[in-house]
Design brief:
It is built from 1 helix and 47 strands. It has 544 residues and is an all-beta fold. It starts with 12 loop residues before the first helix and ends with a strand.
Length: 544
């Protein structure tokens, strides 16, 4: 176990932070700081025990005992040391040889070594060894290949338990097995010889032909088996509609590519196919979509440059040849687009927006342009302009910072619009839904009225909240409501104090009446999620 010490440097502080350090039991009277090791993880299997530490461990032993028992049945002291990434990291690994035990079962692993003062340091339950038979699938096979013209096959396999003591295989009879085909499952039961034979039917839309075999939990360690039948891939023919072979549109605008896809069956006939498809745009993106049962498809995409697009079957499926594609010649003309858009609504229902308007596919010099901020209640119709601004030309585009829109609707959709000009197409941005939870201070009242100078005034009401799309108010408890007073003859409110709403949203606060004037309650916390609100004004005459 002796070895030359070497310096190691940390490569990831996260390793120390993320790995739970195992608890240490020390001999009585010895401080835990006397533990010279930094034991991290212990992994045990019939193939052996692996101990990982941060820094070298002194001579140590691993004790095995039946789980729940204190009686040790085996002690391992022989280890092979490795440092898999010397010298750039600090993990040390110690591995034992294969384990041979007399009895099957689950065992606890304790790690023991000497401390700096010669005391015994014991890490109990540092790991766990599952020394039960391992369920294994053998002779797994499919009866025949599958294709879109022949979707059925029969899966067969033998399920047996391998004894870790001698490797002997024992058939597992009468055991339930789950067959999983891309998330669709069915169950079968093994016969007296541990054999199963199950018909499987594909839909032809699976992303893989693999069939997973999973044994039900039992007195063994379950392992997964699998069968992958041969899939006879079929050729495809992709035909674009007349208007989709060449598409021309201003930069940033969308066009729709339409067409049909057919598969070529084994007998040479062409059949429409419903399948996952792809639209590949060079150096930009690969978009997924699907054809319908008639083989028809329609896919919308933005033109960002003049290039050639490719339409074909999706890569993530084994049924169709995805190497065959149809080409779409896409041409971008002079156009504009919004980028770096930042918009929001604050707690006082003020909408703000800023961003860049860029132009592409043109050599024309950029010039100031008018950008509009528009609103629609449903995001589809009735767009109205609520603010506009003339852009400022910068090296990266035309920057704009729109005037704020005060008293904005509590819910709805907003977008940016540039109308364009004769030689440059306009554009609209993506729509943004801006909303928060609505609040109200309802039933606000000051009593008594009139009040006597020097006597108590009681302010009451209820703080409520509702979703912007709802008409149902709910109490808003545990929130701070603040009170303000404006004396007669004054033009400004003064802050007087606050209270916390009860669980039912009610407020109750007393003040001493000093002068005639107007009271008001305000709520303006939680601005990230809630709109602020204020109560009605309540004037109180003070006498005496």
């Amino acid at each position: 176990m002796a070895r030359e010490n070497s310096l190691r440097r940390f490569t990831s502080a996260a390793l120390v932070a993320a790995t739970a350090v195992l608890g240490t039991l020390c001999a009585p009277g010895v401080a835990q700081a006397a533990d010279p090791g930094n034991l991290q993880t212990v992994h045990a299997s019939p193939q052996g025990i692996t101990v990982m530490s941060l820094g070298a461990l002194p001579d140590f032993a691993a004790h095995l005992r039946k789980k729940g028992s204190e009686t040790r049945v085996k002690t391992i002291t022989s280890w092979t040391y490795t440092n898999d990434c010397e010298p750039s990291c600090m993990e040390d690994y110690y591995r034992s040889g294969p384990l041979a035990l007399a009895d099957l079962g689950v065992y606890s692993v304790d790690i023991e070594y000497k401390g700096t003062e010669g005391e015994t340091v014991l890490h109990k339950d540092a790991g766990e060894l599952d020394y039960r038979p391992v369920a294994v699938f053998q002779n797994a096979a499919a009866s025949r290949a599958v294709s879109l013209d022949s979707l059925g096959t029969t899966v067969s396999a033998d399920l047996a338990a391998r004894d870790p003591r001698d490797g002997k295989l024992t058939p597992l009879a009468g055991r339930q097995v789950t067959l999983d085909v891309s998330g669709r499952t069915r169950t079968a039961t093994t016969d007296a010889a541990g054999h199963l034979s199950v018909p499987v039917e594909y839909t032809g839309t699976e992303p893989s032909g693999r069939i997973a075999l999973l044994p039900a939990p039992g007195d063994y360690i379950g392992t997964q088996g699998s069968v992958t039948p041969v899939v006879e891939t079929q050729k495809v023919k992709v035909a674009l509609d007349e208007g989709s072979r060449e598409v021309t549109a201003p930069y940033g605008s969308s066009v729709t590519v339409r067409g049909s896809i057919h598969r070529v069956a084994k007998d040479g006939t062409e059949k429409p196919v419903a399948t996952a498809m792809r639209l590949a745009i060079p150096n930009t993106t690969v978009s997924g979509f699907s054809s319908d049962a008639a083989g028809r498809f329609a896919k919308s995409a933005r033109i960002l440059k003049s290039t050639t697009w490719q339409v074909g079957a999706a890569h993530q499926q084994p049924w169709l040849d995805y190497s065959t594609t149809a080409a779409v010649k896409a041409t971008a003309t002079a156009g504009t687009a919004f980028t770096n858009v930042w918009t929001g609504i604050d707690k006082n229902r003020v909408v703000y927006a800023q961003g860049l308007l860029v132009q592409r596919a043109t050599t024309a010099a950029e010039a100031p342009a008018t950008v509009e901020l528009q609103y629609s209640a449903d995001g589809r119709t009735g767009w109205t302009t609520r603010a506009s601004v003339v852009t400022v030309v910068s090296p990266t585009g035309r920057f704009f910072n729109l005037p704020n829109v005060a008293n904005a609707p509590v819910d709805g959709y907003w977008r940016l619009r540039y109308a364009g000009r004769a030689d440059l197409a306009g554009s609209v941005s993506a729509r943004f839904r801006l909303t928060k939870t609505v609040t109200t201070v309802a039933g606000f009242n000051v009593n008594p009225e009139p009040a006597v100078k020097g006597k108590a005034l009681t302010l009451t009401g209820t703080l409520k909240q509702r979703a912007a799309s709802s008409t149902t108010w709910k109490p808003y408890g545990g929130q701070t409501v603040r009170f303000y007073f404006k004396a007669d003859g004054s033009t400004a409110y003064a802050y007087m104090g606050s209270t916390t709403t009860a669980a039912d949203g009610t407020i109750n606060r007393r003040f001493t009446a000093k002068a005639s004037g107007t009271w008001q309650a305000k709520f303006y916390d939680n601005g990230a999620t809630h709109f602020a609100s204020r109560s009605r004004e309540d004037h109180v005459a003070v006498t005496g």
